[in-house]
Each structure stands twice: as C-alpha cells, then as structure tokens.
Amino acid sequence: MTHHLLPYPSLFTVFVMVAIIQKRGLRDFDWVLALLAIGIVCFGTVQIRNAQPTENYWVKQLIGLAIAVVAMLLVAFNDYRKLINIAPAFYVFGLVLLVIVLVPGIGLRINGQRAWIKVPGIGQFQPSEFVKVTTAMMLARYFGKHRVSTLNVKEMAVGGLILAVPIFLILLEHDVGSVLTYLPILAIVLFLSAIKMRYVVGAVVLGTVMLPFAYWVGVKTHMVKNYQQERINVILDPENADRRGFGYNTWQSILTVGEGGLLGADTSAAHSQSSLKFLPEPHTDFIFAVTAGNAGFVGCILVMLAYVILLSRMIAGAKRAPDRMGMLVIMAIVGGLTCQIFINIGMELGILPVIGVPLPLMSAGLASLIATFIAIGFAISVQLRRFVN
Known about the structure:
The chain is 68% helix and 4% strand. By secondary structure, the chain is mainly alpha-helical.
C-alpha cells in the first residue's frame, strides 16, 4: 500500500515547485518598468487627444497599447536567450519588411518618405521602428559570446555590416531621422564588447573632422537636399530664418512650448496652437510641444523624469543580466531610445533640425509603440532569468 502512495508526495512536490516558480516570476517581474511605460503612454494619449480633438488618433493609440502590452508579455515570459538565438530569422524578416515598403502600391509615401505600410483598421505601420529591435537582437547574438580578448577589425566590420543593411534600405525610403537613431545601437554594443580605446578616440576625432566636410560634399553633390539645408540653417541662424517657410515648424513648436508657461496655458485645448492647426503633426513629431503647452514646464520636467526612471530601470536590469547577450540587447535598446528621446525633444525646443523622429511611448504610432514595448519585454525577460543558468 505504501508502494502505491509513493507517487503522490512526488506529484505534490512538483505542484509546490511550480507554485514557487510562478510566485518568483511574479515577484521578479519588473512592475515599475511595465507600469511606468503604460503610464507614459496613457499620459501621451491624453496629449494626442488634446492635439487632435476632432480625430481618432487617441483611440488608435489605445488599441496599439493593448497590442503592445500583449507583445511585451509574450517576450517577457519567454526565455530571451531562445529569442536571441533565432535573431537571424527576425532580422531577415525585418529586412523583408523594409524591402516591401519600397514596392510601389504597397509602401505609403507621406511627406516625401516611403516608409509606411497600410494596416487596415489601425492605420500606418512603419517597419523601420520594428527593425531597430531585430537589429539589436542580431548584434547581441553576434557580440554576446564569451570574450577573452578585445574586438578585432573583422568583428567590428561584421557588426558594421549588420547595421549597414537596414540603414541602406531606410535611406532608400529617404528617412534620415530613423537612420540617426540606429547608429547608437552599434556604438553601445561595440563599446561594451571590449573595443580598443584607440578605435573609440579615432572614431570621435574622425567624426568631428569629417562631419563638416561630409556636409559640404553633400551640399555640392545635392545629396543634401535644399529643404534639409534650410532646416539646418534655421537652427544655425534662427533670427534670419523664414518663419513662414522652412522655419515654420520650428517656430510654431517654440511658440507652443512658450505658451505653456510654468503650469500650462490657460486656453482650452480647442483653442491651442495644435488644435487650431498652426502646429504641424502635433500628435506625432511635436507631441512634446503639445505637452509643454498643456502641462507647462512642470509637466515637461515630470515627463523627462519618467523617461529617466524608465531608462534607469532598464540599465539596472542589464547590470543584473546573467550573460552578455542579455546585457547587450538591453543596452543597445537603451542607446537607441535615449538618442530618439534626445533628438525629438531637441527638435521641438529648436536646438536641433526637424527630421521627423517620434517621441517613444508618447507619439502616436503603432510600430514605435509595439517596438518599444517589445524592448521593455526583453528587459523584463532578462530580469526574470537572472538566477537561471
């Protein structure tokens, strides 16, 4: 009789172990990171509603949030190492999407850029936002192996090639803004992969020297278009810029930020710069200016503080990663997000040219929202498995 009862304690032990693992999973889940990201999106949705009160962009943003949260949970509760191991498949899939965008009749051309695919019922989907994550995964897979020496030229060249392919396709879309947000992804991965300091110093010096020369060559060869030159001139010489022409976007953004004052403008949302159609693309590229107009200086400081906490949580998760792959994929994504936030806010404050870079989590856009939450899912997945061999 005792012999027949032996399996039952073993089965009971299994149930107890499963319960403990599940409890640990809920305990180790980074609720602060997830809820903070959701909170930023919800606050941004309110600003989207204020920016375009007669449109349904805010409804689409909430639908996108629901999809993004599901995507985050799917990534978070899967082993990130298994996902990174099949990164080549995701990477190739992303490249295929970038090629599809270039096909006439499929890719949508908006403001001179063919960078979107029409998604029935939701709107436009921008593959270049999604490909940032797949590129970070691919780089983490390649550079995430155990290292005993510094990077050699061949390894850096392979990393450059991994980044160059999507960048080349995005340049064919004429989306220079997205390209700029890709560059920090490789830079962070190389820096954290034991690159020799002489290469870092050399790259900084070469970049500083070559940037003005490259701009001069671009102007002479007409690779830098006239409108791009004018947008740069608006920043370099704002007092003499044509405020009704190429300087219009920048000056309207500065006016919108200024009218917010300390705690926000007294005017109703229906009579703001954005709702009266003075501020272009207020629900996407200029959502931070809308926030400044509605919530004032204090509101902007709180938004930036929320971003600082969000990125700090991700960096803390990277420090606790059990392996290099987990650390690199998180830090690559942090680098991309930080650059994107800096460019967007700088653009809206008039200290950087207008290049059409959305503000993560706040700007309306399905692809950017889902990609950011997938990235957050990776950070949570790494944290959930920091005690697992």
